[in-house]
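To whoever is covering the structure queue this week,

Two jobs came back overnight. Logging them here so there's a record in the thread.

Job A:
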Amino acid sequence: MKNLKTICLLLAVLVAGSLLFQCKPKTQNNDDSDNAAVGPALAQILSKGKPGPLGAFVIFGGKSDYDYVQYALHEKGLLLNWPTVQKGGAERLPDFVSCLVQKGFQEIRPDSTIPEAEQVEKLSIRQFIILSDGLYAEAGKDVEEIKTLTLHLMKTVFKVLNETEINITLELEG
């Protein structure tokens, strides 16, 4: 992710609908532990995904095209991105920030003397930054922590209350 334009291009492709693999969790009963697909999708991308600017990604979608949590795989693990340039992006940014802070993430202030792509690369696990095109958060590799964060964001920001309602888009090769 040495080039922020490449990151933005990848995310634009994701949002535009060039999604290659979709699955929906099974809904056999109301017990999310049996139907949960968020954890397995995270485990799969972390164990089998190809990292890099055009590598693996996963998107957890809600009720509309603009309700989603997305991660790209890179060297440190999963990098969360919330683009503020999309419909509703800027309006929902405070909700994203609040959720991240509640889950122990620390906000890093942007430095206009450093290129944005470098600022994203310098993030440590459990840090986030808000740049000109959106929010970036270094989520790391802990599947349970990332699952908890993802479900918290889906419930709090997008009002998706049941994990079985989450659509999952997973691309391991990029």
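Job B:
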Amino acid sequence: MRICDIRPIPERILAIIRQADEQGFPQPDGHVRFYSYLTTARRELIKVTVAVKHIRKKWFCKQVAVHGLYSSKCYVKDMEYCGYFGMGFRVGWCDEGLQPHRKWYECGWCWAADKYYDPSCPTLNLQFVGTLPEFRYSAFEYYRGADILGYLRLYTAYPQIEYLMKLGLDNIAQNVTVLKRCGKDKNFCKWLIKNRAEIAGNYHYIPVIMEAYKTGRPLEDLQRYHEVKKSLQHTENYAAVKELFKDRNLEDLCKYLTAQKANASSYADYVESLRLSGTRYVTRTQSSPPRIPALARYPHRRIPHRNDNRKRKQAQRILRAF
């Protein structure tokens, strides 16, 4: 794809863009909106991004970026990213006669790396992909994201993504680890079919899915275990819990909370409730709420006494929940 291959917006596409913009913005709006449409150039699928804006109650539309399916660079015109307070992309309108002077980034068509200048926006003629023989069975109609070119690149490298999309597993279909496993392990594909309702209906870490397949353990238990472990390792709000288990491995606590079907936040409430209720010592048995065997003998640790009756009553209510 070259700059000379960029053609003006067809009238039919321009009408589709205007109709979509009028549905979202029935009243004139001065903010910039972005839309994209698909076309071909030199037998390559390209995505053209356009900017839309109302100025003095008049509707304006212009091309601002062009990305190719197999190109390593994109072309951009009169658009620049502004990270100041998360403003996003800004567009110049000097060529349309809407501003007296050119801004520094208005210099015609320029090129950049393909990963840049790709604002998240709806693709209005997604059905155009079905007209290309190589992507007719790519399950593109099931894709709900904003990067259709990235999805088609994945399909080119891993055709089994069509299998996952049609199963309704679009939440894991774009993960390369899962795609590679599907390509070489038929038993894994059968396991996904068997558990697709649970995988599609809930969020799971990819390591959880792989471990559940290898070990046969329930997805729900493994997900809870990994969430507890991750929160204890990376969250600073559980300093009291970490101090209580400083002489022991946190793996014991993760396994305990998983069996209890609790989370790190509820256990932190339990530890804080022991403090607020006036408990002067936290023993090993108290470090594990009821109905669970004590982990290992823990040396006594002194805790300052608190005399706030209101907080003490609140702590008693929390303790009864355990």
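Note for Job B: Residues 130-202 form one domain.

Please reply-all if you pick these up so we don't duplicate work.
Q.
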